[in-house]
Amino acid sequence: MSLLRSARFPAIMLLVAAAAGLIIANSPIGHSVQELQHTYVGIPGVFELSVGHWIADGLLALFFFVVAVELQFELTNGQLNSARKALQPAIAAAGGVIVPIAVYLAFAWGTESADGWPIPTATDIAFALGVLAVFGKGLPSGVRIFLLALAILDDIVGIIFIAVLFTDGVNIALLAAAAVLVVIFGYLSRKLDTRARAALIPILLLLAAGTWVLVYLSGVHATIAGVALGLAMSQQPALHARHVLEPWVNGLVLPVFAFSAALVVIPQVSAGELSPAFWGVLVALPVGKIIGISIFGWISLRVGRREGPPALTFTDLLAAGSLGGIGFTVSLLLSELAFAEHPEIRDQATLGVLAGSMVSLVLATLAGDDAAGCAIASRVAVAGGDARAPEAAMQPLWAPDGALHFVSDRSGWWTIYRAELIA
Q1: Can you tell me the distance from the alpha carbon of 113 to that of 136, in angstroms, rounded to the nearest whole number?
Q2: DSSP classification of residue 407
């Protein structure tokens, strides 16, 4: 289970699952697998969904529950618990939403693909942090904190888009009933530290299932039920639930969704015949995110310094922007929702998400190496020296491996002294 809780392995699984889906869809068995995806499962005449909908609406609700729990924690005790901490990532996140939308619409404005403008606004936090863990060892620790806050704000935007833009004919009565169940769920979760814990857990599970069904039947996308429950649950039990669900979400939910979403037949057409949705997403994810996050992030650094590690350089922001372009999970979901009535455009938008995320991954690797080199070169001329240097002469330095080192200036030469690794 520890492997599934790490940052690296789940990212690799997600990439492999998406690649497998794309390969199988374009193989001789692709048609049979896609037919299975459209097979209905459930209680006949009562509640039935296709396998694809069970994955996108059901399994993915667990992912959004985990995201909501993390969001709740960050807003109350983490990197977004004050306006001072949230200001800079919020400004950068705004750029990471506005610029990709503008880039996408530059390709799709005036066409039937224009409805896909929300697709390139998302950042896959799990995938991005996994790539950062693998390729970004030389980056300052502040990049991970900045990216985490940025991705969480992106998730908020994605949740709002799903709840507002892709909701048709809302049944207010069913939605109100779901809200009542969420309130009861939140109240009972605060009683889990009592002797009634054993009896409350099955009740909470039934309330969660009931909420999901009511939200789905109301016309609102069912993943919003996971968001509402994650935000409503008492924080300590919620964090425990997140800990329990994390390996299942990383090892099963996200790979299965990536596989299902990537079951797309590559169109046998020339580049000029591809939909504006494909080109818009392909360019908006890497280019739009890099420009938006880097420029707006640079502006945010002029607004005021964040608490914590030293301020990021523009090169660090380029690396963060590249990582922000890895859309994957939420972008794939937005592709399905935006073009639910246009499967051909949806498939090309999905290909755009996969290709754009891969371009962002490559750029993030290159930008991470460059940023790491700049971070070291800007602070160190020569490594080595006497580890017995006086403590008073030392200054803290956030080092590439995440450890805290100290540097001492002796006649213009910089010396690194290894300190204990800080968790």
Answers
A1: 35
A2: E
